[in-house]
Amino acid sequence: MGLFRKKETGERAAAVMPRHIAVIMDGNGRWARKRGLPRGVGHSAGAEAFRTLVRYCDSLGIEQLTVFAFSTENWKRPQDEVDDIMDLLRKYLRDCCTQLAKENFRLRFLGDLDRLPEDIRELIARNRVISETCTGIIVNVCVNYGGRLDVVRAAQKLAGQVAAGELSAGEIDEDVFSRALWTGGLPDPDLVIRTGAESRLSNFLLWQSAYSELYFTDTLFPDFTPRRLDEALRWYAGRNRRFGGVKA
Ligand code: FPP
Questions:
Q1: Which ligand 1 atom sits closest to the C-alpha of 198?
Q2: Which residue minimizes the CA distance to atom 3 of ligand 1?
Q3: Cβ(48)–Cβ(60) under 8 Å?
Q4: pTM higher than 0.85, yes or no?
Q5: Which residues line ligand 1 (CB under 6 A)?
Q6: How far is Cα 55 from Cα 116, in angstroms, rounded to an integer?
Q7: Residue range 59-109, pLDDT digits in tens
Q8: Residue 137 lies in domain
């Protein structure tokens, strides 16, 4: 486990500990290639790293963890690889059906879920029901998610409400718009982490990350251990978040 401990999430530490962390889990394929293994093995190792990360974030008292598991663009990957990732999601969801209540995590899936295989959608629905009785960390798994699609769909939803006379165009402000997104009701991420040595958001939480601190690391996701998260948290604790204001 890492160096941060839950007792450090008291009042003083709250100012330096993010409430909501979002992670772009990049580098699974390269992790596998370095070992001469198929890419699917890299995704399995990534899924293990994700499980460890959830438990560690929960132990630190972090309220929300949002991960990018599959983007709207990832369908372009070879069918074998798409199938491998869907199988991992399936396995994760099945395990969660038995473990979720014990672990007390609240699991949510965000994105255009209609395109997912029917059995996965059913497992998501089952886990949503189990999650209702849980009180621990909220884990948002973004699947078939794209930041631009999120914004477009929110605009369509609000336009529909305006056309139906339920809302006036003038009533649409940032708050109303935020609530129409798939992340509606969640606090924006304080910290967005991207592993895998790339420095871009790749269509992840574009609206929601307007004021997030962005942390890029060369570590490939399967190697992103609690110690690596501690490094990101130490970096975050040294940031001065001004939200467009002046330095305190
Ligand atoms: C990016 O690495 C990773 C993905 C597109 C898939 C992420 C999926 C998992 C971690 C497993 C399933 C998740 C859950 C929640 C059970 P990449 O393949 O682009 O790596 P590369 O850049 O090295 O090729």
A1: 22
A2: 26
A3: no
A4: yes
A5: 25-30, 43, 46-47, 50, 67, 69, 74, 85, 88-89, 92, 141, 196
A6: 26
A7: 999 999 999 999 999 999 999 999 999 999 999 999 999 888 889 999 999
A8: 19-147+190-237
